[in-house]
Amino acid sequence: QQQQQHGMYTSSNLTPDNLPWYDQSALNAARFSQLALGALCNDQVGLALELSNACVLCLKNCVEEPSHKSCLSAVARAYLLHGIFRSLRGDMVRYFKYRRVCMTQIYMLDGEQQDETVDALLAAMSFHDAWAYMMYNATEDALPDIDGVLPRVCNHKGCGSDASTGLGFSQVVTDPMNQMWIQGEPQIFLKNEARVVDRSLDAISCAVRSCCDQANRDFAQMSQSMSGGGGGGEGVLDMTTPTSLAVMASENELCSRNMVLSAQALLNQKNAHERVTKPGLIMMITAMDAFLENSDQDGSSGGDGGGAEEGGFSETQIQNLLSACEMAIKHPMLLHSPGPVYHMMSNAAVLLCHLLNGLHAKCSMRDSSSAGNSNDGGAGGNNNESDLFYETLDTFMSIRKLLNMHRQNLPVRLRCHAIPRPNIGPTKKTDPETPFIDLGETLMCSCRGCQGFVLMGCSPCVAAERSLQSSKVQAVQLESDGDFQREIDDLGDFNLDDDALFSILSRVANN
User: Fold this and answer.
1) What are 97-131's pLDDT values in tens digits?
2) DSSP structure string for 29-94
3) What predicted TM-score, i.e. pTM, was given to this entire model?
C-alpha cells in the first residue's frame, strides 16, 4: 500500500498478489464489464446480468479508496461499458448516470499521459451518445434529470467558468453542453494525434447528430406547413443545436457528407490487414455513404434523375447499400454493437425496399408493354434490371430476417422499423397498383431521422399522419411489453446494488 500511495509500482514488484484489493477490483470491473456485453451479444442474458452485477460490486470496492493512477482508465472504461450495458437493456437513466461518472474519471485522468486510452473512451462515448441523441430526437428537455444524484463535471474554477480554460480532456468533459451527451464539434476527429480508428468513429458520430438535426428541422417545417403558419425562419431557429451551429460555422469541413468521406479517407490510410479487422467501421461508412450521396443535390427521391437506376438511386449508391447489408449478414454480431449500428442497417433495408419497388414497377411496365411488341433492343436492359432485382431481393430477405430476429430481443422503446414482407406468395395481392413492398404497413421507429427513410416521397400530410399513427401503435406496445418488463422487475437485487453504488458515488461527489 505504501508503494501504491507513492506511485512506486515497478515491473519487479507489480504482481496480482501484491496489488491492493481496490486496485484489483478496478481491473476486475473493467474485465467484467467487457464480458457482460459479450454475453449479452451471445444471448446469454442470465450470465450477462451476473457479470454486470459483479462489475458493480467491484466498482463499489474502489469508490472511496483512491485507485492507483494507472488503474483510473480501467475504472473509467468499466463505468462506460456498464452504462452501455444498461442502455442496451432499456435503462437509459442509468446509462446517463454511469457516463457522468465516467466523465468524472476522465477528468481525473487529465495530465496522466494516457491520451490514446482517453481518446478511445471519448470516441466510444460520442458514438453511443449519437444513438441516444437519435432516440431522444435531440430533445434535451426529454432527458432524465440526474444532476441531483451526480453533479455536473466542473473544472477547478467552478461550473460558471469558461470551459476553454481547461486543459486536455477536461475541456471536453467540463463543457456544459457535453454533460448529457457529446455535442458540437467532433473533438477527437479534429485531434490529429488521435488514432485513426478513434477519429473515424467520432466523425461518424458527428455525421449522425447532424443528420438527426436535419430530420428534426424537416419535421418542424412539415408541422408548420400543416398548421398553415407562416414565418418558417422561426421554426428553423428553434431547432438549432450546438452540433448544427458548429456545422454551419465550418460547413465545408463538418457537414455530414464530408464527415463520412473524411472517416473513409482516414481508414484507407491503414494497411489491408488492419482494415479487415474493423468490418463494423467499414459497414457504417458504406451505409452512411449511400444515405448521404444525394444530400447535397436537388433531391433524394426523384424518379427520373440522369444516371440513376430507379427512384434516384445511382449505381454507386446501390452497390454501397448491397455491400453494407452483406457485411451485416456476414457479421450478425455487429447489430449488437453500441451506437446506432442496428438503426443504420434497418434504414439500409428500407432503402432496399424503395429500390425493389422501383425495379419491380419498371420491370412490370416493360413486360406489359413488350407483350405485343417484342423487339430485341431492350432485352439486355431488361435482363440487367431483372438480375439486379433478384440480387437485391436475396439480400433484402436475408437482412430483413436478421433484423427481425434482433428486433424481437430488444425492448420496445429501442426497436427500429418493423419492415413488411414483399408482396409475393399465395395470400398476397397481385394488383398492379400494389407496390412490391408496401411500406405503408411499416411500424416505424420513434426516431425522426429513421422515419424519414420510410416516408421518402410522401406528401407532408401523409407523412405526418403515418408518423402519428406509428407513435400511437408504439405507445400501445410499450404498455403491453410485459415479458421484458417482468425481466426488469426480476432484477431487484441487481438494481439494489446499482442504487447502493450510486448512493456512494453521490456522497463522494457532493463532498
Assistant:
1) 999 999 999 988 866 656 788 999 999 999 999 99
2) HHHHHHHHHHHHHTT-HHHHHHHHHHHHHHHHHTTSSPPPGGGHHHHHHHHHHHHHHHHHTT-HHH
3) 0.87
The whole-angstrom separation of Cα 210 and Cα 213 is 5
Do residues 127 and 205 lie in contact, with contact meaning Cβ atoms separated by under 8 Å? yes
In contact, 334 and 327? CB cutoff 8 Å: yes
Q: What is the mean pLDDT of residues 191-195?
A: 89
Averaged pLDDT for residues 358-371: 75
Question: Is 199 within 8 Å of 124 (Cβ atoms)?
Answer: no
From CA 187, how far away is CA 6, in angstroms rounded?
Answer: 34
The burial of 329, by beta-carbon neighbours within 10 Å (0-12 exposed, 13-18 middle, 19 or more buried), is given as middle
Question: Which element (helix H / strand E) includes 357?
Answer: helix 341-369
The dihedral of CA 416, 418, 423, 425: what is its sign? Answer: positive
Q: How far apart are CA 352 and CA 354, in angstroms?
A: 5
Distance (Å, rounded) from C-alpha 165 to C-alpha 156?
10
Pick from 1, 58, 69: nearest CA to 24: 58
First to last CA, the chain: 24
Other C-beta atoms lying within 10 Å of the C-beta of residue 461 = 11
* Whole-Å CA distances, 428 to 364, 421, 435, 436: 17, 10, 11, 10
For cell 458527428, the residue is 206
d(CA 31, CA 24): 11
97 near 83, Cβ under 8 Å?
yes
Strand pairing class (308-310; 313-314)? antiparallel
pLDDT of residue 165: 38
